[in-house]
């Protein structure tokens, strides 16, 4: 071990030469391993989610904390719920003062502009139960018994479309377990429900929504640009992957047992010609037209800055400066301050600087820089696709956001237990996110889809023109 010993002198004096040599060899090995691993990974310099870091371990803020108190500031714009028209109120109560509050003189008449005070309340929740009496009559001619059929659209089970839609909404959108869903229906709605019944509701919803899901899957390869991402999950204790593809008017989720490029070929086809916004995972490379996520690159550059190697740290700082300028210019383009053509002109020097810096890292002779810089420089056209393609963002944030709900659900449920459960997850997540994009009422859509399923009618389509 070279250099000054890291063993405190008071401890070194108590060690035999053999023990001291052994401890120093262990310290050297620890230093080598720390150098190999690099700086500790955190959400700022890697793809780790923010929730994995303890709140007390977060990096302290550089900017000084504001001296303003929490909450609304003096003079801020007031936000309040506006009154609904009187005609929409279920009940109007007129209140007239009887006597003067000062001298008790009796008062008469009415105020032409009374103060309006509205109180919102939930109605008494009581389930609607419809009984169908199916008579069986014997034929006077042949004696055969004939039972009256149920009307069209009436389910053979005991749950109607709205009840099934609400049950599915609680499980899929509000991430409630089957047991808590049954508890909600029974406690608040007075609807007898068991865990087994919620499983039946889950199966009905999957079957009702599947035609709309398949239609979106058919439309996916025709999209001019897509955001793509994936996250690990489990099915019956085995590894699985939840993929998401975000188009301009819909989002498609799919559960697969693999993260391989074959999944992309299966879903997008071998002739897909659109642009895919993604991270630098190699299974996307076969698609040809990519936009690598600059948010991921920013975290990678931060990892360089956090390195103990001064050469690596210097290149990280040099790459971070033009990257921050890129995000500032993109924010102006996104809010309409500048056009994409102006953005391209303003980012021309940024592009030159970054590519020169990548070359510097490529020929630095430092093994910590050569691999990453070579990959970025050899595929540098995938860094700038957003400059020439309308509708393409420099980040993959849309896909990351679409996965957020699914990731929280996975942490609560620990994945799925069967193939049927996986189909429910991918189908309902697709409908939830697509309805949000299209500003559709999710509960209304689920109710209409289940009702159409009971009536043997086509499922309402989710395919719209952008």
From TrEMBL:
Transposase IS66 central domain ranges (all copies): 202-421
UniProt feature, compositional bias: Basic residues: 55-80
Top-level lineage group: Bacteria
Sequence ranges assigned to domain Transposase IS66 zinc-finger binding in this UniProt record: 97-143
Location of the region described as Disordered in the Swiss-Prot/TrEMBL record: 37-86
Pfam families: DDE_Tnp_IS66 (PF03050), DUF6444 (PF20042), zf-IS66 (PF13005)
Domain DUF6444: from-to ranges: 19-81
Record-linked NCBIfam families: transpos_IS66
Name of this chain's protein: Transposase IS66 family protein
Organism: Kolteria novifilia
